[in-house]
Amino acid sequence: MSANSPWIAHIPGNMVWSNAILVTKGMAPYGAVALGEIDQVCEKLRARQTEPQAWWEEWSAMGKRLHARADGLEAAGHRMSAGNYYLRAGMYYFTAERFIHPGPEKREMGRIAIDCQTKGILRRYPNVERVEVPFEDTHTSKSLPAFFMKAQNTTAVRAPTIVLFNGMDNCKEMSVLFAGLEFAARGWNTLAIDGPGQGESLRLRELYARHDYEVAGTAAYDFVAARSDVDVQKVFVMGYSFGGYYAARVAAFEKRYRGGIAMSALHWDLHGWQRDIKRRQDADPNGTPQSAFHFRWIMGCIDDPNGAETALEKAKNFSLVGVAEKITGPFIIVHAAEDTVVPVANAPRLFDAISSTDKHLKILNAEDGGHYHAQADNRQVGIDYIADWIEDRL
Length: 394
What we know:
Number of helices: 15
Structural class: alpha/beta
Shape: globular
Distance between the termini: 35 Å
Strand content: 5-15%
Helix content: 40-55%
CATH topology of the largest domain: Rossmann fold
Radius of gyration: 20 Å
CATH superfamily of the largest domain: Alpha/Beta hydrolase fold, catalytic domain
Largest sheet: 8 strands, mixed
C-alpha cells in the first residue's frame, strides 16, 4: 500500500479530506465506526467537494441517524446495543466537527460527540472510569478530563500503567480504544487523557497547547500514583502524532516515569514546519492534512487578527533542541516509512539526540504494515510493537 493508494488517498487530490477519512476508518477494528457507513458518507462527499458545508453536513447526518437509533435502544433497555450506536454516532460527530470553524457551532458539535462517545465507552467497557486529573491552570478549569481503563487478565493488585496523550487532532475517546484495549488485555492500566490543546480540554474548557508539557505529564503521574491499582514503579508515558513531542518532553523532565514512547517523532522546528504548511495551504487549501485554522485554534490564537503569525511565534517554543538529551530513561520511537505528515527523517534525529542507553527506533515499512502517519492505516501494528517493547521492560 502506497501513500497514493485508494485506502490512503480516499478522495484523490484532496489530502485534507483523505487524511481525516483515514483517521476515521482506522477506528473500525475497535467498533467505533463501520466501513459501510463511512462509504455511504464518502460517496456523497465525492460529489460535493466544492461545497464548504458538505463535510460537516454529511458526517453529522450519519451521526444523527445513529444517535436516534442509540436513544431508542437505550429507552428499550438494550444498553449494550445502544452503546455500539453511541460509539459510532460520536465518532462521526467528531469527524464532522473537524472542519467547522471554531465558534458556538463547533463547540456544540464537539459536546455532542464527546457525550455520545462517552456513553458508548462506558456501556461497552465496564472496566473504564471517567475521571478528572487535577491540574492548575490560569484558566478557570482545574482539571483535565480522562478515561482510566483498568487492567484485565491479571491477578496483580497493582498493575503497570500507560499514561497516553493524543495528537494534535485526536481525542481520548479514540486513544482508550485503539491503545487501551490492547494494554488492558496485557494486564496494564491506561490513563487516556485530553491534555491542554487536545480533545475535550480544548473544545469545552479552552485549555490551549503549551510547550512545557511536563506540567501535564507530572499531573498525570501524580494522579495515577495516588491510585491503589497502579504500580508506581511501572508507569510509562506515551504520545502519538503531535503527542510524540509531548511524550519526549515529559520523559525529559519527569523522571518518575519508567519510560517513554513516541508513536511518531515530531519536528524539531515546529515553527518552520507550520510556516511551510501555511505556504502550501495558501497555494492549495486541499494539499495538506490540516485545516487552515486548526493550528491557530490549538495555540489559542483563533480570535487574534494576526493569529497565523502569533501561532507561528508560539511554535518557536515547541522544540526538542536542548531537551532530547535530557531523556535518560528507556525510550522508544516508532515511525512510519511513508509518513507524509511528519517526515521520517525526524525519527533518527530524535533517536540520536536521546542520552538514554536504553533507546530503540523502529521504522515501519510497507511489509510491516502501519506505514502511514502514527499507523493510522493499521494502528494494531504500532501498538503491538510498542506493547512488546514495554513487556520487555517490566
